[in-house]
């Protein structure tokens, strides 16, 4: 494994910068406290203080790591204080939204590729939908769905869907149009039906595009689910942890929730990458 | 061909009369084909030669129902190109092999058979047969990227042969290959033609290739795309590669070159 050394070096550099930044950002508070208590602080005391404050501006890496350990390993997963519980709440909405978004994106892409009218009429709206800031529209989706009696998982999943269908549409339109004119002419010389052309040529051609889109869609879904948790009053989920953390100045809680979100996203994207590798290998395309 | 010729001996397979095709482009209409008349008999090997823009590929595409003529008619096996296409009367070989990278060589050849609804045992039998025909037996389970360019093009010919159409339309199939591979494939193509008795229409821009392969050479010229000369080759059926050094061969090649030169406007 000759890649281990460079990877570890980069990680070490990031951690070092992080510790240094913690000193820089938290020093003012430590100095103010010392001044108020009218005592002198040595340089080493100051540094140690900036790395162990209860509500630091920027928590040190080990503080976040400790918090993560306490809220994942040391808590039962059913506990409301368990980060695993909150991550699962967010992940379930993410996955539902991802599935809905992928299905919607796929259906729209098929329509756009096969119907010129849809290409001209739907595509502008698809692009327009993504120019609206999700933070602005998320509360409205929640409120509107609540008004018609839909609450719980689905409203959050809808926001995930709203973000995740877009990369699938764009990627799949490109992918389904990937076959060359020659390949399509060839199908015509065999008098293939539209269905045969789709299943045997267009769909397999689009696979590399599909997986690239799914990775982006998964990350977008997670963002959507977290954003969707903010206006619901912060009941449960990583978004709730973020919001609660910011209410009470619990920066360590915020950062550990952020890391959990990043870990979940990385895991899901890696999972899609694995499925991609296996699929393309079985198709003889890698 | 005249009417008194016996029909069995030389049945007309492709017949174009007063064929015109105009493409509307942003720079105005382009006359891709003008007043094209041609008859191709059963078992003929016809080459279409001419500079780019002379309409040779367009003509082939009209026969295959991939382009629609503006006026005039084409009959393939006595019916319209569309009916012929639907009856799977021809196999078409494109400039590039166009093999599906996610299918094995066998899977690629099976593709048209699957589309046409052949039974599985028949599919397997046909794949074996045509692979032998193009000298690729044993490569059924390989993927296209594992084969050289020449082998890929042979596989694509095998695919065009798989459903046993009587007519083979080939659009510069060896254009992208180097000369040595090309010679080899030309030899193999002649052997294949002799064995299968198919009617072959072959587009090329190589004079030696056209003269070596054909029983009939159609010389075309551009702007507007038209036929300027049709040469019936006096060369024998049996053609070793060395025939290209004989006076007869050079004489036909000379006539083709003259025809090309006369029709070519150097502007």
Descriptive account of the structure:
The complex is a heterodimer of chains A (286) and B (267). Helix content of chain A is 78%, strand content 0%. Chain A has helices at residues 4-36, 43-50, 61-72, 83-114, 116-121, 123-129, 134-147, 153-176, 181-189, 194-229, 238-247, 251-282. Chain A is elongated and about 90 Å long. Chain B is an alpha/beta fold and 267 residues long. In chain B, 35% of the residues lie in helices and 25% in strands. Chain B contains eight helices and nine strands. In chain B, the strands form two sheets. A six-stranded mixed β-sheet of chain B has the order 5-6-7-3-8-9, with helices on both faces. In chain B, helix 7 (207-213) packs across helix 8. At the A-B interface, helix 9 and helix 10 of A face strand 5 and helix 3 of B.
Would you report the number of β strands of chain A? Answer: 0
Secondary-structure element string of chain A: HHHHHHHHHHHH
CATH fold annotation of the domain at 9-89 and 203-267 in chain B: Rossmann fold
Main pleated-sheet profile of chain A? none
Largest sheet of chain B: 6 strands, mixed
Apparent shape of chain B: globular
Taken from the alpha-carbon principal axes, the silhouette of chain A is elongated
Give me the number of helical elements of chain A.
12
What would CATH call the architecture of the domain at 9-89 and 203-267 in chain B?
Answer: 3-Layer(aba) Sandwich
> What value does the Rg of chain B take, in angstroms?
19 Å
Uncertain runs of chain B: 1-9
CATH superfamily of the domain at 9-89 and 203-267 in chain B: P-loop containing nucleotide triphosphate hydrolases
Briefly note the CATH topology name of the largest domain in chain A. MetI-like fold
Global mean pLDDT of chain B: 89
How much is the radius of gyration of chain A in Å? Answer: 24 Å
H/E element sequence of chain B: EEEHEHEHHHEHEHEEH
Please give the most extensive interface between any two protein chains, plus how many residues each contributes: A-B, 19 and 25 residues
Please give the order of strands in the largest beta sheet of chain B: 5-6-7-3-8-9
The tally of domains of chain A stands at 2
The whole-number mean of residue pLDDT values of chain A reads 90
Number of strands of chain B: 9
